[in-house]
Amino acid sequence: ARADVDTDLFDYRSLLDDDERELLARLRDWLEKNLEPVVNDHWARAEFPHELIPLLAELDLMGLSIDMTDRPARRRLLSGFVSLELSRIDSSFASFHGVHSGLAMGSIAACGSPEQQERWLPPMRRLEKIGAFGLTEPHGGSDVAGGLETTARREGDEWVIDGAKRWIGNGTFADLIVVWAKDVADEQVKGFVVEKDMPGFAAAKMENKLALRITQNADLTFSGVRVPEANRLQEANSFADTNKVLRNTRGSVAWSAVGVMTGVYEVSAQYARDRVQFGRPIGGFQLIQDLLARQLGNLTASLGMAARGAQLQDDGIFRDEQGALAKSFCTTRLRENVGWARELMGGNGIILDYGVARPFMDAEALYSYEGTREINTLIVGRSITGESAFT
Ligand code: FAD
User: Fold this and answer.
1) Pocket test for ligand 1, best of 370, 375, 379 (most atoms within 8 A of CB)
2) Is the pTM of this model over 0.95?
């Protein structure tokens, strides 16, 4: 159960207009009706609720911040609150959205030619084609800029891709995988849209994952996969172009962290009302109030950073260090908050049914993906000192 507590103490939602608030209210209803009742069961079985995809498509939320022919781009502030709402119920499901809508559609929008955008974005918006984003490799995710081992070799009108990717969200069922590979000719990182039925491509689900269990992460292999030149993202010419995508999606992970914080705050606040010890609700004890007040402080500060970041993205002036700081700061606060919410609930904090154990585990994934805290810290550190600590 969730307490009806104020999760937006400084009223950031007042920055939204009525239309945006109405869309978010519809999404919240949808999630509470369709996702929340089945989420623990799917998490326990590590299965994705595929049956929800056609229903989700009806909400028309994919690629919201991308300009489409019949739907102008909406504000990043709105897509941020969409990530918050999804993550408030389940951060695996939010990751499905983040990978498909932010990373895959975002790559095609940022690095695809107008023809490529017209070819792939409309079916992805309707969720008829599901996207994935393949950057990380088995040898590691932090050193992807310099250390990419997947190669692309041009042969006439085709490219031949060889290599492997690891951790790829939606990888087991995606139709279109944006794959980042090094061109053997000029050593630059380029982006390719690999289609799942291309010969030489294979995906295997990663098993025994104890966070974001609903997210289907996969090991991908590419053995001489032939990709037409028409599937090479025409505006992706170096890792700097990959970074354009990541800068924005790091802002979205900050929103996800705020969403998970919102969910566990509501659940633990209700628990503090219901649970009686020493003859009174535990919410009357000062130490329990401290656990709630500290959660609200982190939640409020993170929401402020995420919201301002979204405005800067809308203004086209969002910088790498801002995305990196928002991602690492908000997910660090998240890690504290899920710990405090779990602590507040005693033993029940580690039982799936009570609503905090799942986000407690999921927070670990948010903390490490899209650049670990260390890597994002080094991006911030480089901007502070002018010195790169990466090499
Ligand atoms: P490593 O790079 O091996 O790092 C290990 C440790 O060393 C970390 O603590 C790291 O911070 C630290 N470290 C590394 N270099 C330095 C340094 N210079 N200074 C200080 N510390 C350092 N990737 C995709 O491409 N697509 C996806 O869809 C995707 N989804 C994911 C979903 C989940 C649930 C997870 C967990 C990961 C996902 N990833 C995805 C991969 C993710 O981006 C990587 O896990 C992340 O970049 C870290 O890489 P790594 O796990 O290989 O750790």
Assistant:
1) 375
2) yes
